[in-house]
Amino acid sequence: HYIKLLRVALVRQLGNDAKLIYDVKMENNYSSNRPQIVKIPSSNRDPLKPQKVTVTLESDKRELRNPFIIPGLQKVKIESQLNPSYNFANFVEGDSNRLARSAGMAVSNKPGGTSFNPLLIYGGVGLGKTHLVHAIGVEIKDKYPDKTVLYISSDKFSQQYIDSVRSNTRNDFIHFYQMIDVLIIDDVQFFSGKAGTQDVFFHIFNHLHQNGKQVILSSDKAPVDMQDIEQRLLSRFKWGLSAELQVPDYETRLTILQNRLYRDGVEMPEEIIAYIAKNIKSNVRELEGVIISMIAQASFNRKEFSLDLAKQIVDKFVKNTKKEVSVDFIQKEVSKYFDMDVATLQSKTRKRNIVQARQLAMYFAKRLTKTSLASIGNQIGQRDHATVLHACKTVDNLTETDKQFKKYVDDLMKKLTF
Fold first, then answer.
1. CB of 143 closer than 8 Å to CB of 134
2. Are 95 and 193 found together in one domain?
């Protein structure tokens, strides 16, 4: 392979009349042990000073591209892709996640040495699956810094596999992953329908498992509910432990909020924290999203933390926190807003402020309840349906022409619907 380079070097050193005669000794199983001699003439003229060069080849094997398995090469350190902010210290334990967290701690203490291999964490969106698998990886790296830990999403794994097939480096791809000590794959449900990815992961998984390496997986569903994934791969998922992350209860949600505020160095009234924890029930991600929005509003818009602000922000995250509105509830809230009692609102007086309060009560009763006009009028001072219709038209007109009255409408709408 280097004849051309050698010829150039000889010409430079010895001139155009140089001639190379060399022996190649190869370690092989051929019957003859005689060295192979190749004569390469450079011209028809006599050589000036012929020289003999001997080159010994130790192996005829093709060079391996995988840096992990080149003989004599120091083990290559690769970036784990872990997020250090996702750790056990800020993963709040509760009844909804205790099994998964405990299993994760056990794995991090003895990766590959427990019966939780693979460890599959599953649960709905925003419940902390990614946080937990990162926390396990981070803990392992802290305790076993020499271990090769790699976190990767299922989509990225699939794309790397596709690229390896296109570039004819599939074996290098497999060898690389077979040398990982702790492999963490997020959202394995996205292997669904990808036959090639499933096949290559099946072989990688088998190799890792047989060699005592740890596999950690996350999914939005249990193995039994996964679709379009080969049964042989699903059976591997079930070899270890499948631990579910459930929706956190109120106490856990409250602790999550308090911990987040503590880490951010933010003080917030307990009633506001309690309101958020009570109304954001679906997942942890939304809980933290509300806190981030509250802090942003307070910082950028110079607003104080308040229950009203919390209600406004919570409403942007969930649509099921609105109160059950009734005519009676509307009368109480309108009366409170205008600093009067319900009896005054229902009275026959024609004072402007009381008339407007009564009209607003009728307006919101029509808009926010399914109560008939006749029933609304009857409950608000025993008026008829025509009075209710007139009140609604008056409110619509004043809202368009009177800025102060429009503020009444906006304020009351927030109070009645949050």
1. no
2. yes
Query: From the CB of residue 50, how many other CB atoms can be counted at a distance below 10 Å?
Result: 12
Rounded to two decimals, the pTM is: 0.58
Residue with tokens 């391996």: 64
Domain end marker among 245, 280, 305: 245
3-state SS, residue 269: coil
- The CA distance from 70 to 51, in Å, is 35
pLDDT value, residue 324: 62
Which residue range forms the structural domain that includes residue 110?
A: 88-245
Count the domains in the chain: 4
Element containing residue 215 per DSSP (H, E): strand 214-219
Distances (CA, A) of 200 to 72, 151, 215, 316: 28, 17, 15, 43
Terminal-residue alpha carbon distance, the chain: 79
Alpha helices in 349-402 (DSSP H): 352-368, 373-379, 385-401
C-alpha–C-alpha distance, residues 300 and 293, integer Å: 10
pLDDT score, position 37: 46
Which of the residue ranges 111-125, 184-198, 287-301 would you say has the lowest mean pLDDT? 287-301
Dig out the tokens for 109 from the structure: 């203490």
Asked if the structure places residue 387 within a domain, the reply is: yes
Reading the block at residue 236, the tokens are 């591997």
What pLDDT, in 10s, does the model give residues 147-177? 999 999 999 999 999 999 999 999 999 999 9
Q: What burial class does residue 386 get, using C-beta atoms within 10 Å of its C-beta: 0-12 exposed, 13-18 middle, 19+ buried? A: exposed
Sorted by sequence, the CB contacts under 8 Å of residue 393 that are 6+ apart come out as: none
Round to whole Å and give the CA distance between 170 and 161.
7
Work out the number of other CB atoms within 10 angstroms of the CB of residue 227.
Answer: 8
C-beta of residue 342 within 8 angstroms of C-beta of residue 304 = no
Nearest to 253 by CA among 216, 221, 226, 284: 284
Could you report the per-residue pLDDT of 337-357, keeping only the tens digit for each? 999 999 999 999 999 999 999
Neighbours of 393 (CB within 10 A): 12
For residue 152, the model assigns a pLDDT of: 95
CATH value at residue 274: 1.10.8.60
Element (H, E) at 26: strand 20-26
d(CA 404, CA 410): 10
Strands 36-40 and 20-26, bridge-based pairing: antiparallel
Q: Which residue has the tokens 């909804």?
A: 96
